[in-house]
Amino acid sequence: MFSEKELLLVPGPTPIPPFVERAMSRPVINHRGPAYEQLFATLQEKLKKVFQVTGEVFVFPAAGTGALEAMTVNFLSPGDAVLVISIGFFGDRWGEIAERFGVQVTWLKFPWGEAATPEAIREFLKKAKSPYKAVLITMNETSTGVVNPLQEIAPIVKEAGSLLLVDAISGLVAMPLPMDEWKIDAVAAASQKALMTPPGIALVAVREAAWKFVEESRMPRYYWDLRLARSFQSHHQNPYTPPVSLLFGLDAALTAILEEGLDQVFDRHRRLRDLLRNGARHLGLEPLVSDDRFASCSLTALKVPEGVSAAQLIQTLRHQYRIEVAGGQEHLRGKIIRISHMGWVHESDIHLVLAALGQILTKGSSQN
Amino acid sequence: MFSEKELLLVPGPTPIPPFVERAMSRPVINHRGPAYEQLFATLQEKLKKVFQVTGEVFVFPAAGTGALEAMTVNFLSPGDAVLVISIGFFGDRWGEIAERFGVQVTWLKFPWGEAATPEAIREFLKKAKSPYKAVLITMNETSTGVVNPLQEIAPIVKEAGSLLLVDAISGLVAMPLPMDEWKIDAVAAASQKALMTPPGIALVAVREAAWKFVEESRMPRYYWDLRLARSFQSHHQNPYTPPVSLLFGLDAALTAILEEGLDQVFDRHRRLRDLLRNGARHLGLEPLVSDDRFASCSLTALKVPEGVSAAQLIQTLRHQYRIEVAGGQEHLRGKIIRISHMGWVHESDIHLVLAALGQILTKGSSQN
Is 0.95 surpassed by the pTM of this model? Predict the structure, then answer.
């Protein structure tokens, strides 16, 4: 009876607001007809505002990983030298994608739980014999809850003459990312994070000045081909069938986000983060990211105290409190839990998860 | 007020039954939790029944075109010689995808509106100096409403020692395609056709005996990598976030299809086709495909009579009758209209579109 009563606090998919669900229940329409073209045209305008970009935003039926692959095959060519700055699981994944496609990857890795430092990046780029074609970096690392200081990193990369490609899948809308202002060449995002829409839509935004690199890429591509997408987008259509019902949802979500105002949405995410971090510390739960400056406003990783089983804690939250949180990945498995505050999450949700954690931990065990 | 009262008879997306819509309104769940694993395990079993295959069926957040690209990059390697049998727009598209990925394509094209003939294929394969690595063929050509005689073609291809890869995007579930029995190595499908689910899910089914070719392929891939998908599928998960809400819908649609029974579903599609073809002929509208044996049970293309504007006919159906049909593609633009009878379409829908066509055409013009 309570299977659908669940507080979904994993870092994607995130909870869907009822107004987004209602929008998706609209009957599916012909993607080659005028009603769709009107939808796609307004969606395009809203997306540009959210990405803070004058260039185009491309919409793929795909998971966020598809957006990473799309940036890789549209901006790079086999043999290109790129710098992959990784601070965790998803940075590693993107670098692996690039390697699979024959790109020559140089890794600059930072310890999981820490942010990339502008100084280290500047030093690294300085000692490169020739400029990297591109620098690939994660805005917000979902595996650790760390946000990179992109505002400081971006000018360093642009000075070095490289393209700056950013994975903002779990960061967009939760924290500021003014693409044009920071001169970020391309940004990947996905529907199921702070955009409050079910999974199935991948987004790639391209800064106008960066378009010429798409034309130059010699990577084989069809599904992800931005040139093909652009030729259809000029008349508000897509090369192949778009995920119409999900787009109805995304349109409703974007309307709500823009009505609230981007700055207010950023503030809201920050407030939730602070509430959770302070509340957790009060319970004796230490955030993985100690420095507030690099603590993500999208999600928070908490260290599981000595003697407590992370798996058991997740199970107890699931079964006794109907709260879904995520565990750690790779070497952080068993060491942290990850709690999302992206999208349609309210202070009351954070209060509930804190109350639940407090009750479980003060009982002196997580087995009950 | 009537914007949502619409009879959607384009060949995808097709109408969504209310029970599928209701299933999709279930709140989104954690794709790394036990509820999802249970869903995905049962979905897998249902998909195998629908594809009539003992091998695995892979689920991608993607459009149908993604399934074509996935088959291309998982079964072929750059430089491989393949035969692309094309009878229309979508056959051409698949061949283009293969060419983009460096596959050496030999084309065997048949006139739009006709089926591929087993004799011609046998002759063509006979005169090849060495066997083609694979033969790529469309089951049901959506641009013309022609179904290929795959039951006869399959043994010819297998005798020639080639892999048989089939695009069944607009054919699956509307017409028989017993994969194991016909020894078809891989089949592509998509949610938004006879599977009665919104667009956003691409499917690739692989015959067990064909798996070894996936391991051998040297094509660069990540998003479409079936090896990666398989490693997660073994514990009922996916490498990246699946389109959870669409999968709820697909699961409900598959349940309905299997409860009705595949043979009954095929019969139903055939009845609708016959009703539409006979009714159209009665109105003096000639089907593009004259031979009943090759007339698709998914959709029917009707020739627009001399002196009638196809664009105007489509507009009148849209605005006066709230019926959405499709026009012709490429050189058939302006010459045909295409009416889908895939999925959640009832006899009453066909009666309505016939009545509308009758009224418009007997008024002697399509301008009113």
Answer: yes
pLDDT of residue B366: 44
- Give the number of other CB atoms < 10 A from CB of residue A271: 14
Residues 6+ positions from B246 with CB-CB distance below 8 Å? A198, A200, A243, A245, A246, B24, B61, B191, B197, B198, B200, B201
DSSP per-residue codes, A275-323: HHHHHHHHTTPPBS---GGGB-SSEEEEEPPTT--HHHHHHHHHHHH-E
Q: Which amino acid is at B354?
A: L
Helix-helix angle B34-51:B244-260, to 10 degrees: 40
Nearest in space to B107 (alpha carbons), one of B130, B81, B131: B81
Tell me, what's the pLDDT at A368? 42
| Chain B residue whose CA is closest to A324 | B30
Asked whether the predicted pLDDT for residue A363 surpasses 90, the reply is no
**What number of other Cβ atoms are within 10 A of residue B268's Cβ?**
17
Question: Nearest-CA residue of chain A relative to B102?
Answer: A220
pLDDT digit string, tens, across residues A84-98: 999 999 999 999 999
Categorise residue A12: left if φ over 0, alpha if ψ from -120 to 50, beta otherwise. left
pLDDT at A2: 86
DSSP state, A108? E
Joined together, the tokens standing for residue A307 give 């003697």
Chain A neighbors of B6, CB-CB under 8 A = 27, 29
Rounded distance between C-alpha atoms, residue B46 and residue A271, angstroms? 45
Tokens representing A81 are: 């030298």
Q: What is the pLDDT of residue A366?
A: 44
Rounded CA separation B231/B236 (Å): 9
B218: tokens are 């040297």
Is there a contact between A344 and A273 (Cβ–Cβ < 8 Å)?
A: no
Binary contact (A240, B28; C-beta < 8 A) = no
**Comparing C-alpha atoms, which of B158, B169, B166, B202 is closest to residue B186?**
B166
Mutation target among A105, A167, A169, A222 for the B interface, most CBs of B within 10 A: A222
Q: Which residues contact B363 (CB under 8 A, 6 or more apart)?
A: none
Q: Which helix (H) or strand (E) holds B233?
A: helix B226-233
Least CB–CB distance from A198: residue in B66, B102, B244: B244
Residues B280, B191, B314: CA angle, nearest 5 degrees: 35
Contact A325, A6 (CB under 8 A): no
**CB atoms < 10 A from the CB of B76, how many?**
26
From start to end of chain A, where are the E strands? 7-8, 56-61, 81-86, 104-109, 134-138, 140-141, 146-147, 163-167, 186-190, 201-206, 299-303, 323-324, 326-327, 336-340
* Contact (CB, 8 A) for B116 and B148: yes
- Phi first, then psi, for residue B32 (nearest 5°) are -110, 15
Closest CA to A348 of A108, A1, A3, A9: A9
Phi, psi at B337, each rounded to 5°: -120, 150
Cα angle value B239/B240/B245 (rounded, 5°): 125
Q: Which of A20, A68, A223, A240 to mutate to test the interface with B (most CBs of B within 10 A)?
A: A223
| Domains of chain A, CATH where assigned | 7-14+261-362 (3.90.1150.10), 18-259 (3.40.640.10)
